[in-house]
Amino acid sequence: MSLGLSMSLNADIAFYIDHTLLKPTATPIEIQQLCREAIQYQFHAVCVNGCYVALARQQVANTPVQVAAVVGFPLGGMATAAKIFEAQQCLQDGASELDLVLNLGWLKAGAFDAVADEIRAVKQAMGDGLLKVILETCYLTESEKRNACELAVAAGADFVKTSTGFGTAGATVADVALMKQVVGNRAQVKASGGIKDRATALRLIEAGATRLGTSSGVMLVTNGSAADSGRSD
To answer: Which fold has domain 3-221?
Structure first.
């Protein structure tokens, strides 16, 4: 990475960040702190579980910070009707972006129509909302990653996303570059999972990520690095 590019990305990195808190033990006080940090550092969004969407929306009201919620998280194996209902509830509570885990079993079984139909149904339920589809790349072959990207784009996804942060591995530069190669300008790429220092974040952005899901956003914008914070990325 050139020095000029690195300095430019350093200056703007906050806007790439979805400040994330998805651990099962997250409390309302922690969500409020997450939102305060997002406002202070001008992150793009906060990303929370569905039960905290209304609280997060209240906390970031009248600021540019968006509220993203996860759907079908973290396994992706819920019934399509359940995912649609969850999506609608999150939108009703104030989310403007949804991060949907695709059905990995269907993908691996070659049930491509079912995968695409589910993504399309959630997208149609969203109106103008922005949909990110989580591939959970650590469980996929290169061919499956390519297929998942194509299916997501064909079904109307706005982003393809690497990981939940609950799998066996998170975002890699290679996966982001592959995903960007497949989707081109038809969708954007979100890297998530294990992004705990700015050097890693910058490499992922250079590879094609336009959004970063991380619980270490404050560290990234203050030139630090983070050990495991207890939050999931």
So the answer is: TIM Barrel (3.20.20)
